[in-house]
């Protein structure tokens, strides 16, 4: 098990990236997608999030890149209050 303040000794309650053991409900394709998304967020979203927050929008280039990768369903912008469930 990876050492982290977020890990628990209770089975299957931690995010899977905090564990070194195989998860019985994830297939290799799901783990591959999870790694790809984590790498994308770590390299493209997280370093720019502060700037986007300050300027109040995500640049067109970043939004287009996000869409090209198929992440358009994940909102990268704040929704108006009347659009929030």
From TrEMBL:
One of its GO terms (molecular function) is flavin adenine dinucleotide binding. It holds the Pfam family Acyl-CoA_dh_N. Residues 1-13 have a biased composition (Polar residues). Residues 1-24 are annotated as: Disordered. Residues 28-75 form the Acyl-CoA dehydrogenase/oxidase N-terminal domain. This is Acyl-CoA dehydrogenase/oxidase N-terminal domain-containing protein. The lineage of its organism: Eukaryota, Fungi, Dikarya, Ascomycota, Pezizomycotina.
């Amino acid at each position: 098990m990876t050492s982290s303040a977020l890990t628990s000794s209770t089975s299957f309650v931690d995010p899977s990236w905090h564990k070194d053991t195989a998860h019985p409900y994830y297939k290799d394709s799901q783990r591959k997608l999870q790694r790809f998304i984590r790498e994308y967020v770590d390299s493209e979203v997280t370093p720019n999030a502060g700037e986007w927050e300050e300027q109040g929008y995500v640049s067109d280039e970043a939004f287009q890149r996000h869409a090209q990768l198929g992440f358009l369903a994940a909102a990268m912008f704040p929704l108006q209050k009347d659009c929030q469930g």
